[in-house]
Amino acid sequence: MSKKSTDPIVRLLAILCPVVYFASYLTRKNYGIVMEAVIASEGVTNAQAGLVETLALISYGAGQIISGVLGDKFKPQNVILCGLSATTVCNLLMPFAPDMTFRAVIWFINGFAQSMLWPPMVRIMAMYMDKQSYDDTCVNTNIFGISGTIFLYLTSSLVWLKFFGETGWKYTFFSSALICLAILILWLLGFRSIRKRGGERTKVPVENTQQTADKPKLTVGRVMAAGFPFIALAIIMQGMLRDGVTDWVPTFIRNTFHIASEHSILMAVILPVIGVVSLKVIGIINRKFVKDEVRGAGFTFIISLVCCAFLALFYQKNQWVTLGVSALVVGTMHAINFFLICVVPLRFEKYGVVATMSGVINSLTYVGSAAALYGFGALSDKWGWNACVASWVVIAALGLALCFIAVKPWKKFRDADV
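The structure corresponding to this sequence follows.
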């Protein structure tokens, strides 16, 4: 069965994958969004609260590699099902944890559960979709994920924290778990429909079996010659800015301008909104103009560097300007995420390791995220937000340099006829 002959299945997956990613963001980003309320209600430091998220990001990053291998060897839809089930349970347990130690353990497990979603999903999309459908679905999937973040910002600030006070953050976890459970059921029903259409497969299409057997092996030498180490470091820089800025902006705004937790969380909804706009714009630009994803990421880092430099100089002047420029930084990181996390793994399809490389690549994002979640909290505690924002400038500059160093070797690897 060819990829192009399964149009009804492709259309169904174009719905299921984004919806699952919506659930993923609901059950993964919720702690970061209500972290300021947790700090206020539990009386812990920024670094202590950030450590919970950091541990989750470590397990999420490491789990990406494991789930990538699993997604290549087993039915990827079942790997996703296990991840959705485990994250639902973790979110239900989180409000009942008696202290930050228990929360750290639960959220560490949740990080691994979340890692079971993206790499198998990349394999599913690569199995069933042509390049255009893959790119479009990747963009929509990431938009749905960010939309989950918007939903969290709005419900946390306008409903749970507003009506239940600082302990209202607990209801954010309950509501996330219930929605995830509903989407888990939808995933089961969706793949039952795919089976009935004769579209379920755990290996490559029949007509490509011989081609797969003849595929060249991906060696360490090929990876190194492709400039991948530089891309890997750029991905880490992207993760530091994307998740570090996103998760710390509510606290950053509250500490700088002395406003209430629910107000700082509500204001921060602009970050994912700009992220959605960025992905829509980058989807159009990629389709029409971008020929090289690494070069595209490099040019996007230039924009982020300018924004970070502006923040370092003027962030104390006005809360809305600070918030808007912070949102632009996050928006550029979502665009870079599309280039380096969504497009780069597809280049490994000729080696038959799409899910594995997707897991490796995505894990690198969360190496950066984990470092940023704890590091930015510790920087702000010890030296204040001036030092923290200055570090954003350095990170953006490093990402820019790494991408442009990798352009030539990556082009040679991407265009090689192997």
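Residues 1-5, 201-212 have pLDDT under 50 and may be disordered.
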